[in-house]
Specification:
- By secondary structure, this protein is mostly helical.
- 66% of the residues lie in helices and 6% in strands.
- The termini are far apart.
Length: 466
């Protein structure tokens, strides 16, 4: 049994323990030694009232860590029902990027109350949260923090170590130390970066300016979070500096936030690719936490569209009804042909969408991609056509029918490869999420056009088949 499910059952049992003292002891036993991430995951599997009861029982230090790790639906319920003063206290304990996320998940009226109370407790923190919330959701600016170690370029290694030791215990990372120059307006210009490992290996008398890396890779506050996450994956960073619109250092984003983005974007792409609607920027909820009506709503739109698109196949069949009357054997191979075309298209669109999501393929590459897929379709189609010709012949059908099937397989595979590569790239060009061009839609399109190709080839040879 997964750990979070086991913990959720323990928490639920503890809540039902008679007497406040007994319940407290049971909750203590259940959460003893558990990490905040595990508790947050377990709360996801409880009802919202149960999750709120456990959350209210946690001490503030633990509750703050759990709050930053909650699923959005659970967080929204807790924020709507927990005492505002306590939430404000928890915000003061959180990293400011997490605090900004918490405030953004609350209803506007509650968010205003939280911010007013945070302003009274920690004005500087409140100002930082407000600044983060000015950046558009889904950008690097929304995820950054200014809690990191800054070094001056003229420091010696010994002096730099002293600065590191004096750093706030709550700094997000010590793996990379950022070298900055400050002007009279407290604007920080990023001039270099040095890892803690490099600092440890340097000689005491060396200057930071002499050993730092000057060519620093950074992102803008307006950089899309998915692009930022790809940079993390590409360069294996533990943190990445973020520059404001004037080019000054605004903060850093740490790898844990980048991993969250990659997970979120991958989940969205998987759902959209399967034909399940996901609101832009929305975080998909866990399976058992998603209301059934919401599940139906998210699937219905695409199913209706695919249902309507499937009628194209019926129209193609109806248009060639006379041909079937003449050669009834044509119908036997329809499942083989449309299945082959659909599978080919699904493979291609999966590959192309993956390439787009990783930044390996862009619209400017469309002719190169189409040429590659055209050749691939011809090669795959030729091999499958030979197999198809042999299967039809072995079943005792005339060689002319075997030829129709073989030529159709070749044409359908080639067409499916090309169209399935083109559509996602065109979608990207027009700012439509390529994942929305889902596998079911591609399959339905290839089914209808594949039937037309098959029956068109058969019609050309119908005289020979009589």
């Amino acid at each position: 049994m997964p750990e979070n499910v086991h913990l959720a059952e323990q928490l639920r049992a503890a809540l039902r323990t008679p007497g406040r003292g007994g319940g407290d002891l049971a909750l203590t036993a259940a959460t003893q030694g558990m990490r905040s991430e595990d508790i947050a995951e377990a709360l996801r599997d409880l009802t919202n009232p149960e999750a709120l009861a456990v959350f209210n029982w946690l001490d503030n230090a633990e509750a703050a860590e759990v709050l930053g790790d909650l699923e959005p639906d659970t967080a929204r319920y807790i924020l709507a029902n927990a005492p505002p003063a306590r939430i404000a206290d928890l915000l003061d304990r959180l990293p400011m990027d997490d605090a900004a996320w918490v405030v953004s998940e609350a209803e506007p009226a509650r968010a205003a109350i939280f911010m007013a109370q945070l302003q009274q407790r920690a004005p500087e923190d409140a100002e930082e949260v407000r600044e983060l919330l000015t950046y558009e959701e889904g950008t690097a600016g929304r995820l950054m923090t200014d809690s990191f170690v800054r070094l001056a370029p003229d420091l010696s290694v010994v002096e730099a170590f002293a600065d590191v030791r004096r750093a706030d215990a709550e700094v997000e990372t010590l793996s990379d130390l950022y070298v900055v120059e400050t002007d009279g307006k407290n604007n920080e210009t990023l001039v270099g970066v040095i890892s803690l490992r490099e600092l440890v290996r340097a000689r005491d008398e060396q200057r930071i300016a002499d050993i730092m890396t000057r060519d620093v890779i950074s992102v803008s506050v307006d950089t899309d979070q998915e692009e930022m996450a790809r940079q993390f994956a590409k360069y294996d960073f533990m943190a990445m500096p973020v520059l404001d619109r004037e080019g000054f250092l605004a903060g850093i984003v740490t790898v844990d936030d980048a991993l969250d983005v990659l997970t979120e974007e991958q989940t969205e792409d998987q759902l959209r690719f399967a034909g399940v609607s996901v609101e832009p920027g929305a975080t998909p909820t866990p399976y058992f936490s998603t209301p059934l009506l919401q599940v139906v709503k998210s699937r219905l739109g695409w199913l209706v569209l695919l249902f309507a698109a499937s009628q194209l196949s019926g129209e193609v069949l109806a248009a060639h009804d006379a041909d079937f009357a003449k050669v009834a054997a044509l119908t036997i191979f329809i499942p083989l042909l449309i299945g082959t075309g659909g599978n080919t298209g699904a493979q291609t669109v999966s590959t192309i969408i993956r390439g787009i999501s990783l930044g390996e393929v862009r619209f400017k590459d469309i002719f190169r991609v189409l040429g590659r897929e055209l050749l691939g379709g011809l090669l795959l189609g030729s091999l499958l056509a030979l197999i198809g010709f042999g299967l039809v012949s072995l079943r005792g059908f005339e060689s002319q029918l075997a030829m129709v099937v073989a030529l159709s397989i070749l044409a359908i595979c080639t067409w499916a490869n090309v169209i399935s590569a083109a559509i996602p790239l065109v979608a990207q060009k027009f700012k439509v999420d390529p994942a929305l061009i889902s596998a079911p839609l591609i399959t339905t399109l290839v089914d209808a056009t594949g039937l037309a190709i098959y029956l068109g080839i058969a019609k050309l040879l119908i005289t020979a088949l009589r």
